Amino acid sequence: MEKFTKFRDAGTGIAPFLPIAPASRAPVMIPFQMTLCVIRIPLLFLVFAFEVVFVEGLGEICLRRVVPAVLGWMKWVFFRTVLLLCGIWYIEEQVEKTYRSVLGCRANG
Fold first, then answer.
1. Are 18 and 1 within 8 A, CB to CB?
2. Cα 16 to Cα 8: distance, rounded to the nearest angstrom
3. Residue range 47-81, pLDDT digits in tens
4. In the chain, N or C: fewer CB atoms in 10 Å?
5. Rounded to whole angstroms, how far apart are CA atoms 3 and 31?
């Protein structure tokens, strides 16, 4: 494995060709994870069913013309609930700005 050390990233030291060791599971955690799985899957289907009925059905018929912002918030709540059920607790939202380069925008003349 030492023959691949020249391929390490100079900045981070990450070796792209070394295998990643799998995370070890404690035998005590397996029943807990199975219980969560059995609870989460029906809840996911239930949330998706409510989303189809309320957002795609009633929301598109009633709210699209009257208050479109409420429809957006309803979608946000439903899909954040899905992410929560999948175990994603927090998403850091960032706004990236893109700037045009002054050097690349010269006019021919």
1. yes
2. 7
3. 999 999 988 888 888 878 888 888 888 889 998 99
4. C
5. 42
